[in-house]
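call fold(seq) -> C-alpha cells
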Amino acid sequence: MTEVSRRHAAAESREAQRAAFFAGVRACVVFMPSYVPFGLVCGVAAVQAGLGEFGALALAAFAFAGSSQAVLTQFLNGGAPLAMAIASGLVVNLRMAVYSAALSQRMSVTTRKERLLWAAFLVDQTFICNEARHERGEHIAHPLAFYLGCAAVIWPFWIFTNALGAFAGAQVPPSWQLEFTIPLSFVAMVVPMLKTRSQIGAALAGAVAGVLFYSLPMKTGLIAACVVGTCVGLLVDAVQKRTQGVTP
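ret:
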C-alpha cells in the first residue's frame, strides 16, 4: 500500500469513527428528559444523607448509577452503617455483571484501556443502545466510538441533573413529590426487559418480598427482596431447563 493509500484509509477510518460517535450521541439524546426528575431526587437525597453538595456531585460522577445512589442514600438516611449502605448499592447494581458478561463475548481483541472505558460508562441506557446497534449491524468497525458517543451525552447530563438537585433542590415545592420518580423510573426501565419466565418470576417475587419485608430495620428489606427475587429467578430458570432437557 502506497503512502497516499494509507493516508486515504486513515482518513476514512477517522470519518467512520466520527460517524459512529455522533450516532451514539443521537441514540442517547432521547433519554435525557427521563434523567431530569431522577437526577434531581438523587441530588437532593445525597445532600439530605449528609454528603453535602459537592459530595453529591462526586457520588454522581464516580458512581454513575442512579439506582445504587438512591439505595445508598436511603440506607444512610435510615441510619444504616456505611458498609451496609455501600453493599446494598452494589447488590442493586448486580445486573451490570450480566451486562459485562454479554459485552465480553465481543471484546476478545480489545485492549485493557478500552475495556476500562466500556466498564466506566456501563449503565442501562448505554448497554441497550449498544446492543440495538449491534443487532442492526451498524458501526461494527467502531463500536467503542459509538459507545463513547452515548456516554458523552448520558454522563455529563446525569451529573448536571444531580447538581440541580443538590444546589437547588430545596427550591422544589414538596407538593411535586419528585421522590416517586425513582420507583416509576425503575418500573419503566425494568418492565420492557422482562421477556423470559425466569425474569418475570424474579420480578414478581422480588416485588412481593419487598412489600412483605418493607418494615425490616435499616431498610434491609430491600436486600431481602433482592435475594428472594434472584433465588426465584434462578429456580424458575433451572426448572425450565430441566423440563426442556427431558422433553422428547
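The mean pLDDT is 83.
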